[in-house]
Design a protein that fits this description.
The protein is α/β, with parallel strands linked by helices and about 210 residues long. Helix content is about 45%, strand content about 10%. It has two domains: about 70 residues, Double Stranded RNA Binding Domain, CATH 3.30.160.70; about 80 residues, Arc Repressor Mutant, subunit A. The protein contains eight helices and six strands.
Length: about 210
């Protein structure tokens, strides 16, 4: 009986000596592990979510630059799954590569930024689509260009439909502004974030 009691007391003392980690401690440990993974070349894609007037945005970046910006309606889990298959499964939530993009997006929505100054990784698009998407940076804040005008600008005037398709597959909307590409009759056309979002973005820029 005495031995059993001593054993129980020892267990109580051991339990009281074990302190549960606090959320702050766990966050610090997680950040340290992510930083070590990045330093060791084990992190291929870092991602985070950013608040916007149109709901949370997913921002994902490789070592080369921002590879994906996704609206909530695209399904962030689906986007991450696609990135794991098309780029790398070594994905972690981290602000280490995405802080600058997040800051510039905040500035853009606040009306304090008219052009993004961040590296972009366009590995998800190829050929003509890549040419179109790279050209989007030349369409200035508060301006629009027609699908036909973009087709002419990239050297293929007949490829108006292909320009529309390229804009629909833009992996980095907002940063490369496909919302500034409209139909020749002035109507907005489609947009990854929804027609209402496209209209709101153009109105925001026009009012600035």
């Amino acid at each position: 009986m005495k031995t059993q009691l001593n054993s129980q007391l020892n267990n109580v003392e051991l339990a009281s000596a074990i302190t549960m980690p606090t959320p702050t401690h766990l966050d610090g440990l997680r950040s340290r592990l992510i930083a070590e993974a990045d330093d060791d070349g084990l992190l291929d894609i870092a991602y985070r979510t950013v608040d916007s007037p149109f709901g949370p945005l997913l921002v994902a970046a490789t070592a080369q630059g921002v590879v994906r910006v996704a609206f909530e309606r695209e399904g962030h889990d689906n986007v991450l799954h696609d990135l794991a298959g098309s780029v790398s499964p070594r994905i972690l939530r981290s602000g280490r590569r995405t802080d600058d993009a997040a800051r510039q997006l905040d500035e853009y929505f606040a009306g304090r930024r008219r052009r993004f100054d961040i590296d972009v990784d366009l590995q998800l698009v190829h050929g003509f689509r890549r040419e179109v998407i790279a050209h989007l940076a030349d369409i200035g804040y508060g301006s629009t260009a027609s699908y036909a005008a973009v087709a002419r600008a990239v050297g293929n005037p007949a490829a108006v439909r292909a320009v529309g398709s390229a804009c629909a597959h833009n992996p980095v909307p907002l940063v490369l502004p496909c919302h500034r590409v409209v139909r020749s009759d002035g109507s907005l056309g489609q947009y990854l974030g929804g027609a209402e979002t496209k209209a709101a973005l153009l109105a925001m820029e026009a009012a600035a």
